[in-house]
TrEMBL record:
This is Nitrous oxide reductase accessory protein NosL/NosD. Residues 385-551 form the Periplasmic copper-binding protein NosD beta helix domain. Coiled coil: none annotated. The keyword Cell membrane does not apply. It comes from Natrinema pallidum.
Length: 644
């Protein structure tokens, strides 16, 4: 077997050993530091595009730019504290090298005030100064969208004047590097998952209970039509719809509950929405709804990327929320939809500006041709709860747009083009959903959001199990099985832990250009390729001595715990679980020496992933048992970890 790329590098290593290391790095021993660059020319971290676009034009957040010895790009950090936290992370120097130069913005050049939210506002652009020459105000009232921030000044007197107005203390660069900062990062998202679940339980309990109202009108006894019952019912009562089919469309404009007995069906005329809600605190339960109009969208066109946010939202409002649906709710907070079955060629449930809505135990069957339908459930500026619901076919099963904090849990999704699709939505919790044979992407998180949690989901049979974009995201305890790609890892500064990737063509594709993620205690079993990485420096997928389980990546020869690291992007290691003889080659002394050399020089491992603490056995055996690949996992001593 011939490995040309590694053979060339191996020859280089041998020549280097023979000639000495001096030939590897040519240049002055103490070269002049590089000059700062415009911030928009850096690879920036610490602020999402969504957060940046939401800031007032006069807001000038503290920024840092760093030139690293072994990284080809200049890295821009929003906030001095973001750089300090990044530098403290294990493996940071190994991935990037050491800082050749660090520059920070100088607030002494401008008049600076703080908005009510603590964001700094200046009367002019700021210049760059060397961080080692600057003075830093720590612990003031200044904030960024991520939390507290450090404000730098070239002159100590300017820094002291800022503390008199806004609090804090003046630190040197060395003192600042020793500080810890309270920022809203992925660990905060992880720690609040249970709290968010409990808070949502309270919302569900309140919203559902409020829809439990005494019956005041019985259709067929007190009135002839459902609409007449709605019009005559006193507020906070129930209109009861007996068994039968009622061919009409209805509008609910008062706080009542519309409830059906077994077999009650409202059948629209096939031209428009069937049930329209325009009042808060409405309940809809125990009904079948059919006869929905075919209009999956409500306008001729949707705006392009050049349209500003306000114009986009306005067009979105017309294009999507003005479409036909079984239930169409507009400015109807605390809506309760429960035990409802929907057949629709277009949309199932549309929620516009209707926060704290609860959809539970519903069934939505969309158009088998996804090109002709749209959303099973669409939430536009409507954070609430969607749970224990089944959605089949259509284009997007669940589509959330600017619905910060929405919770989508314990749903069954099958056969749509996209499963759960988030746009411009922060702080969402997607938990314990089961997605099967979604055509394109099971969970699709796009437009650079932050602080979302994706926990306990199972995604099978998609082109892409999940595409997760944004920052400060928590992805844990999910199962990605039998997808073309299990996970497109595109969210930076995030935590990916205790997931199982089994039987995919590719387990994970790391798309993030900066190695700011923690990827640990995941299991990779029976994937054609366990993981790949795009451009960027070496990614180290282990933390505090804990790594991931890689089928085939360890053996009894490596010890327990293994003394040998594993790289799923290495041309030999990536074949260990599927090519006979690869294990012997991988452990050849020459290649071991090469691996150690490459790990010591991050520039040798661009576009690479290394786990320096691979596990001997799966980290998540209970999750692995849910897959069809459990009998492919072995311990370091050659013992099967499960009973097939």
């Amino acid at each position: 077997m011939y490995w040309p790329s590694r053979e060339v590098v191996l020859i280089t290593v041998m020549l280097t050993a023979a000639l000495g290391t001096g030939g590897l790095f040519v240049g002055d021993a103490d070269p002049a530091p590089p000059d700062p660059v415009p911030f928009d020319e850096t690879v920036s971290v610490g602020l999402t595009l969504e957060a940046e676009q939401s800031l007032d034009e006069n807001v000038t957040l503290p920024r840092t730019q760093v030139f690293y010895s072994q990284y080809q790009y200049v890295v821009g950090y929003y906030g001095v504290e973001t750089f300090v936290d990044a530098k403290r992370q294990a493996g940071h120097d190994q991935r990037f090298g050491y800082p050749l130069a660090v520059y920070v913005t100088d607030y002494g050049d401008a008049t600076v005030e703080l908005q009510d939210d603590g964001y700094p506002v200046t009367d002019r652009p700021l210049s760059w100064i060397d961080a080692t020459d600057a003075w830093f105000v720590v612990g003031s009232d200044a904030r960024t969208p991520s939390g507290e921030t450090v404000v730098p000044f070239a002159d100590r007197a300017d820094a002291a004047a800022f503390t008199e107005a806004h609090g804090g203390e003046v630190y040197t660069w060395e003192q600042t590097l020793e500080e810890s900062f309270d920022t809203d990062d992925a660990t905060v998202v992880r720690d609040r998952v249970d709290e968010q679940d409990r808070r949502v339980d309270a919302v569900v309990k309140s919203t559902v209970a409020q829809a439990d109202r005494p019956v005041s009108i019985v259709v067929g006894e007190d009135v002839d039509t459902v609409q007449e019952g709605i019009d005559e019912a006193p507020a906070n009562t129930t209109v009861l719809v007996p068994d039968g089919t009622y061919e009409e469309t209805v509008r609910i404009d008062r706080p009542i509950t519309l409830a059906g007995e077994d077999g009650a069906t409202i059948h629209g005329d096939g031209n428009g929405s069937v049930v329209t809600v325009t009042e808060p605190r409405v309940g809809i339960r125990n009904l079948e709804i059919t006869g929905v109009g075919p209009m999956a969208s409500g306008a001729e066109e949707v705006p392009g990327e050049s349209i500003d946010d306000d114009a986009w939202d306005e067009k979105f409002l017309t294009y999507y929320t003005g479409a036909d649906a079984a239930i169409s709710a507009h400015v109807a907070a605390e809506l309760s939809i429960e035990n409802v079955t929907i057949e629709t060629p277009s949309n199932g449930i549309i929620l516009r500006e209707s926060p704290d809505t609860v959809v539970r135990n519903a069934t939505v069957r969309g158009n088998e041709r996804w090109e002709d339908g749209f959303a099973g459930i669409m939430a536009f500026q409507s954070p609430g709860v969607i749970e224990e619901t089944t959605i089949v076919d259509g284009r997007d099963a669940i589509y959330a747009y600017r619905s910060e904090g929405i919770v989508v849990r314990e749903n069954e999704i099958e056969g749509s083009l996209l499963g759960v699709h988030l746009m411009h939505t922060n702080g969402a919790l997607l938990a314990d959903n089961r997605l099967t044979d979604v055509i394109d992407t099971g969970i699709y998180v796009m437009t650079g959001p932050e602080r979302n949690a994706i926990v306990g989901n199972e995604v099978r049979g998609s082109v892409t199990g999940s595409y997760v974009g944004g920052t400060d995201t928590y992805v844990a305890e999910n199962v990605f099985e039998a997808n073309d790609v299990g996970l497109e890892l595109a969210a930076a500064a995030s935590i990916y832990e205790r997931n199982v990737f089994a039987g995919n063509q590719l387990g994970v594709n790391d798309r993030v250009i900066l190695p700011t993620n923690r990827v640990v205690e995941n299991d990779f079993v029976a994937n054609d390729d366990h993981a790949t990485a795009g451009s960027g420096p070496l990614r180290i997928w282990s933390h505090d001595g804990r790594g991931n389980y890689w089928q085939g990546g360890t053996s009894i020869a490596d010890g327990d715990p293994p003394s040998r690291s594993y790289s799923p992007t290495d041309p030999v290691d990536r074949r260990l679980h599927r090519t006979d003889g690869a294990a012997t080659l991988a452990r050849a002394p020459a290649l071991d020496a090469l691996s150690e050399f490459e790990e010591s020089v991050s520039g040798m491992r661009t576009g690479s992933i290394t786990d320096v603490a691979p596990a001997c056995e799966p980290n998540n055996p209970e999750l692995l048992e849910r897959t069809d690949q459990a009998d492919r996992a072995w311990t370091c001593d050659g013992t099967l970890t499960t009973n097939p």
